Amino acid sequence: MMRNDNAFTGLEAAIVLIAFVVVAAVFSYVVLGAGFFTTQKSQEVVHTGVSQASSSMEIIGQVYGHADSTTKDSTAAAHLAYIRFTVGNTAGGTGLDVTQMVVSYADETTRDADVTYKPETGSTLTNTLKGGSGENLYWGVIEKINHDGDDMLEPGEQFVIGASMPATAKVNVPFTLNLQPNVGAVFSVKKSVPASIDAVNLLY
């Protein structure tokens, strides 16, 4: 009788089957792990987007430009000393710390990526802002409305922000003031110096 040893024995078949099962299990684990990782990243992006969107601010009312007492109308040297506007949280927004906010200024010839924050308030701050229209620019909170005593801009509160302007903020010059909270999107104030500068000017 001829003997044929080419066929698998039951033990060899079991070993091959177990190897395939192990490889399939490892591959399935890797695929499931990648799927879970992708899902977690997607959730993180969504939560971050919601957090940033809910931490935005908005301007309440108008933006006003104040001239220095030495500024004379219709002269080549006329420029704004500082601007003033009121900000509040957007609908459904969360509180944000204004002291951690980064303010930058830009016009046709002047750039300041980090305007200096001043913790002063009231007339003391406005006098500082008037004196900051040279090389150094300043900003701060002139007044807090409906506040609870801290520096957090919370729902229902309003902060009057003041920012000094450089000597290049002359008539008809457009400028941009960017407010970057520690959490949330950048809020840009884009206005132009009016053609005629008065003591107090409504900016468009």
Describe what you observe in this structure.
The structure is a single chain. This protein has 204 residues and is an alpha+beta fold. The protein contains two helices and twelve strands. The protein has helices spanning 10-53, 122-131, and strands spanning 57-67, 80-89, 96-97, 102-107, 111-112, 116-117, 138-145, 152-153, 158-164, 174-180, 187-192, 200-202. The strands form three sheets. Strands 6-7-9-2-1-12 form a six-stranded mixed β-sheet, covered by helices on one side. The chain has a four-stranded antiparallel β-sheet with strand order 5-4-10-11, with no helix packed on it. The longest helix is centred in the N-terminal third of the chain and has 44 residues, at 10-53. It is elongated.
Terminal CA distance reads 106 Å
Order of helices and strands: HEEEEEEHEEEEEE
Oligomer: single chain
User: How much beta, percentage-wise?
Assistant: 25-35%
Number of strands: 12
How are the strands of the biggest sheet laid out side by side? 6-7-9-2-1-12
Assign a percent range to the helix content: 25-40%
Q: Indicate the structural class.
A: alpha+beta
Shape, principal axes of CA atoms: elongated
Summed up, the helix count is 2
Low-pLDDT ranges: 50-55, 72-77
What's the pLDDT, averaged over the residues?
A: 81
Radius of gyration: 31 Å
| Biggest beta sheet summary | 6 strands, mixed
